[in-house]
From TrEMBL:
<dbReference type="InterPro" id="IPR006619">
    <property type="entry name" value="PGRP_domain_met/bac"/>
</dbReference>
<dbReference type="InterPro" id="IPR015510">
    <property type="entry name" value="PGRP"/>
</dbReference>
<dbReference type="GO" id="GO:0008745">
    <property type="term" value="F:N-acetylmuramoyl-L-alanine amidase activity"/>
</dbReference>
<feature type="compositionally biased region" description="Low complexity">
    <location>
        <begin position="314"/>
        <end position="329"/>
    </location>
</feature>
<feature type="region of interest" description="Disordered">
    <location>
        <begin position="39"/>
        <end position="72"/>
    </location>
</feature>
<feature type="region of interest" description="Disordered">
    <location>
        <begin position="152"/>
        <end position="365"/>
    </location>
</feature>
<feature type="region of interest" description="Disordered">
    <location>
        <begin position="101"/>
        <end position="140"/>
    </location>
</feature>
<feature type="compositionally biased region" description="Gly residues">
    <location>
        <begin position="191"/>
        <end position="209"/>
    </location>
</feature>
<comment type="similarity">
    <text>Belongs to the N-acetylmuramoyl-L-alanine amidase 2 family.</text>
</comment>
<feature type="compositionally biased region" description="Low complexity">
    <location>
        <begin position="337"/>
        <end position="365"/>
    </location>
</feature>
<feature type="domain" description="Peptidoglycan recognition protein family">
    <location>
        <begin position="365"/>
        <end position="514"/>
    </location>
</feature>
<feature type="domain" description="N-acetylmuramoyl-L-alanine amidase">
    <location>
        <begin position="380"/>
        <end position="521"/>
    </location>
</feature>
<feature type="compositionally biased region" description="Low complexity">
    <location>
        <begin position="244"/>
        <end position="260"/>
    </location>
</feature>
<dbReference type="InterPro" id="IPR036505">
    <property type="entry name" value="Amidase/PGRP_sf"/>
</dbReference>
<feature type="compositionally biased region" description="Low complexity">
    <location>
        <begin position="276"/>
        <end position="301"/>
    </location>
</feature>
<feature type="compositionally biased region" description="Polar residues">
    <location>
        <begin position="226"/>
        <end position="240"/>
    </location>
</feature>
<dbReference type="Pfam" id="PF01510">
    <property type="entry name" value="Amidase_2"/>
</dbReference>
Amino acid sequence: MSPRGTRARRTRTSKRTIWLAAGAVVIAGTGVTAVAVGGGSEGGGGADEAARPAQAHTLALTGKDPKKRELPRTETQLFSLVGVSWEDSADEFEGTAQIRTRGAEDGAWTDWRDLDFDIRAPETQEGDATGVRGASEPLWVGPSDAVEARVVAGGKETAVPDALRLDMIDPGETKGGKGKGKGKGETGKGQENGKGNGNENGKGNGKGNGKTPAEPGDSGTAAPDPSQSGGETEPSSAPEQSAGPSSEPTAEPGSPSEEPTAPEPSEEPTQDPTQEPTAEPSAPVPSEEPTAEPGGPSEEPTAPEPSEEPTQDPTQEPTAEPSAPAPSEEPTEEPTADPTTEPTAEPSAQPDPAESTTPAAPAAPAVVSRADWGADESLVADPSDYLDKVDAVFVHHTAGTNSYECADSPAIIRGILTYHVKSNGWNDIGYNFFVDKCGTVFEGRAGGTDKPVRGAHTYGFNGSSAGVSLLGDYENGGTPTAAAKQAIADISAWKLGLHGVDPEAKVTLTAAADTRVWKNGEKATLNTVSGHRDGFGTLCPGVALYSALPEIRRTAGASEYAG
């Protein structure tokens, strides 16, 4: 242990935390404390009456040997993510911590797995708050009901940390399921209802959650690949699809009053104005109904037949315009004439919806919101802090398993949120964004994806950067998929572009703490898209992902989301 000295702790008052239950249970002779950490705050996304809240279980790791702690095989309550933590976050642990777990479904014990110690409390008031603990990186192990652990001090350490404990997190369930999808396209869309026809909040219809954030899952075709094989590049197509729905509604309403009546009946005949659907929709209607055409010049070009004309509600006065061109012969000519004339003739109706959407907002990658992955907002006590500018993006990996299914991604992120708050003692999840191997992007720390939210991801450089973490371990054999690399490039290009930063450039940042790489106050010249190890002494984001950063930077520079 290398204590860095006593630091003043500032008490952070919790404004919204709701404790549902707190009780101690004794299992196999070992005291296990279980606390329900979710309560369903007002307006908080993810909490629901029908949902099971996340829970944090802890096991004290005690013993007589000051240099070693061991926990024999011990049955526990259900958990899916595990780590170790200790009392003082100022103490850097040097040594090894290994765990093995028993699967809740098959009862099989895993091999020993190492925990990483590259996580540090924020270099701000958040990191100095009372209750902040030192901790390992959390490890996703999947549903488990028993654990075995051993921790040994190493290097210059002569003793394990004080108040050492094992932290086990059950990510709970959100309305809609346990987070066990089929690993297909839907898994890349943040769905985890086990059926592949809705998202984990019970919204959606198999194509996402009914919101653009679900669309990145189009890369979900890569989702079946639990391994890192398969270089799906589909995530890049998802954002394009998200634009579709936004433009249709604006183009369709030729007149605001007609929308409710026209879209409902999908059949062409029923769309004819006051005339009966029985009136031949093919020949008679178009010939005497030039009025049907003006309603939808935007749709005419795609289907020149009269069948398309009935769909356009002709009850409006636009009958004057179509009357000029011969309605009988021009399914192909009128579309071209109408769009050009109508905008000038009726600026109040047509131009507004159609042209406001196109130039309105800049393109942005689809991101699964906190509400959609089930974040329990009652855990977040204080509002987010904001930076003046995001000058760089640091790429991380979660150092967990690579065998997860993309349907489990929301549950993994819920587990990390609970761990960062209940085990580390932070205010919120540390990373600004998460990406899974299917190329789905998830919102991380609260405060607005398009805002310069200050995260807790790269010690010493949190004050000038955003953090993007790829789910999985890319130091020990894992290989990032093409879909994941594309998603990291797109979200980085977009985030930096909001601040006029080139993702292929370099930037000079000032270290706000000693990071094992840079001294406090030292000027560090880094790539605007850098790896965690560039700023802090760590192996993160793993050799495979770090080696892919040059490619990711080039892809970001060419991304449609680059500013």
